[in-house]
Amino acid sequence: MEKKKIATRDGFGAAIYELGKENPDIYVVDADIGKSCKTVAFRDSFPEQHINVGIAEQNCAGVAAGLATCGKIPFVATYAVFGSMRMCEMIRQEICYPRLNVKIACSHGGVTSANDGASHQCIEDLGIMRTLPNMTVIVPADYTSAKALVKRAAEWDGPVYLRFTRDAIPIIYEEESDFQIGKANVLREGNDVSLIAVGDTVAIALEAAEALSAQGVEARVLDMHTIKPLDKEEVKRCIRQTGRIITVEDHNIYNGLGSAVADIVAEQGNALLRKIGIQDQFGMSAPYERLLAMNGITAEQIVATARELLR
Amino acid sequence: MDKQLSISQLEDICLDLKKRILTMIYKAQSGHPGGSLSVAEFVTACYFRELNIDPARPRWEDRDRFILSKGHVCPAQYAALAMRGFFDEKELDTLRTEGSILQGHPDMKKCPGIDISTGSLGQGLACGVGMAIAGKRDRKDYRVYAALGDGECQEGEIWEACQTANKYGLDNLIVFVDNNNLQMDGTTDQVMPNRDLGEKFRAFGFDVVEINGNSMVEVVAAIEFFKAIKNGKPKCILGQTVKGKGVSFMENVCDWHGMAPNKEQYEQAIRELDGQYHTKSA
Predict the structure, then answer these.
(1) Whose CA, among A51, A84, A200, A271, lies 20 to 30 Å from B166?
(2) Are B266 and B22 in contact (CB under 8 A)?
(3) Is domain A5-170 in CATH 3.40.190.10, yes or no?
(4) Which fold has domain A185-310?
(5) B7-274: CATH, from 3.40.50.720, 3.40.50.200, 3.40.50.970, 3.20.20.140
(6) Does the fold of domain A185-310 match that of domain A5-170?
(7) What is the ipTM of this complex?
(8) d(CA B111, CA B90)
(9) C-alpha angle A67/A71/A76, rounded to 5°?
(10) What is the helix, strand, coil percentage profile of chain A, to 5?
(11) For residue B166, pLDDT beyond 60
């Protein structure tokens, strides 16, 4: 059965509109790419809460910091490459260091900007952002969770980095599902192997879990939507319950979800771990599914890795 | 704030400020005296005449904001804040030491009266633009003052912020450029010529006045002039200044950008400043 697909950037657009309607202190700071980041409805409905600084991302982060000191809750809307790298030092100095209430909301995460090519694909952001003190890092796994987690981020007092997809991905959550920052969602229980996934790869992990189940292997599947603060207790439960963990992410295998989980596994010292992700290489213009496949981010690869761990 | 202070009274206060700057840096044996001294007249004019602030309520939402975008010269701002009663003057002795509210560069979460943490050059003005936009949107009367270095104007983000100040008609933003023509590696002309900063700010939509930035009467007049103009244009005071102003052996000497005086130098500097008072203050 083909699941309905929507990009998570559309979830951001829907949620930020609702937030803006409820709270006049919610601001959007655009850097010319509002149409793509889905802030147009917000802009048209709440012009007094909207700023567009043009193609000038460094200033964008600074303006947001200044707004936050005046009690506003600014959401900077941009692409992940710019939000995590062009703005990086401004986010560090003016947002994370003084712990200001600014949200960096980024579309085009991972390789979801597929045919745009390597310049617009972002496989480094989660590692960079989780290294900044005071930063919270969130990657919703579908449209529904994107809407919910944007609202949780608005309620969270402090800097938050949010990453969304450009391309459509399957809807996996019911509308009323519960999301808490820093609390992983257990999507499937199992005692043989744990699949800890984030963002657009959660649906792939679920697909792999079904295939494994058909082969008599029961996988525990986590949606680790908050990379930082990481839900360490849930990771430890995976270690105790299955002793075998596979992390799956649309991000470089270095410094993302896999590395965060590896820290816990190393500290606990009693589980096998495999990391599935981008193989430390830049992408190219190609279909999204092809780019994932080039890096082994497929249900088939997860299944094969699980079988290898169980051998 | 007592707005009745005369220019000569402000000049004497500025000498008090400069002596505190040097004492702090001498005791810490670390800091940036040259730029702290060149911006001292502007800092004094702001904190002792122009800023609508309340030491008892450092986060008062209607206050004027002061952004030290060239954050390394924070001894000037710390001295002013202490003299205005934002914190005990004894804190000045703790500059750059472990546990101090007076970090090597301004920290808004540690030090009362700091409106934004700065220190990484080029970033403060953008924050000021955000504050000025918030003021306009909230229909508040406060102004945002931002002190920039001329070397700092080599950063691209400054000009990104200027674009935004122009677009949003921020006549509640007053920029002061401490145009002392020196930066760490040499003169700005050697390191990276700024060409005509006044023309640059004009081209970015600012009203600009060019003054002697170490002349209290000119600094006060420039601020008063711009405060009276509500024309939807951001303001820039381009202040020609002398790095190390007031201490003969520090003036226009590049090495005093980031060097602490030894005992002899410190004592001579204080003697020179003491000799510049209109009236001997208590």
Answers:
(1) A84
(2) yes
(3) no
(4) Rossmann fold (3.40.50)
(5) 3.40.50.970
(6) yes
(7) 0.96
(8) 14
(9) 40
(10) 45, 20, 35
(11) yes
Which residues, given as ranges, of chain A have pLDDT below 50?
A: none
**If pLDDT is split at 50, 70 and 90, which confidence band does B280 have?**
low
Going from the C-alpha of A76 to that of each of A252, B83, B213, the distances in angstroms are 24, 38, 36
Chain segment B26-59, per-residue pLDDT in tens: 999 999 999 999 999 999 999 999 999 999 999 9
For residue A49, what are its two tokens?
């809460």
Task: Show residues of chain A in contact with B126, CB under 8 Å.
Answer: 58-63, 65-66, 90, 94
| DSSP-assigned beta bridge partners for residue B208 | B236
Q: What is the separation of C-alpha B31 from the centre of its chain, rounded to a whole number of angstroms?
A: 15
User: pLDDT grade, residue B282 (50/70/90)?
Assistant: very low
Tokens for A107, please give them: 């579309």
Mean pLDDT of all residues belonging to chain B: 96
Residue type, B203: A
How is residue A172 written in tokens? 């996996």
CA A282 to centroid of chain Cα atoms? 19
Residues B26 and B22: their CA atoms lie apart, in Å, by 6
Q: Which residue type, as a one-letter code, is found at position B82?
A: A
- Check CB contact under 8 Å for B134 and A89: no
Cβ distance B168 to A65 less than 8 Å, yes or no, reads no
pLDDT at B216 over 50: yes
Q: Which of A60, A66, A99 minimises the CB distance to B116? A: A66
Instruction: Evaluate if residue B2 carries a pLDDT over 70.
Output: no
Could you tell me which of B17, B65, B71 has the C-alpha nearest to residue B41? B17
Domain boundaries, chain A: 5-170, 185-310
At A85 the pLDDT is 98
> Measured between CA atoms, how close is A57 to chain B, in angstroms?
9
Over residues B108-151, the pLDDT tens digits come to 999 999 999 999 999 999 999 999 999 999 999 999 999 999 99
Do A99 and B128 lie within an 8 Å CB cutoff?
A: no
User: What is d(CA B247, CA A290) in angstroms, rounded to the nearest whole number?
Assistant: 68
Which pTM does this prediction carry?
A: 0.97
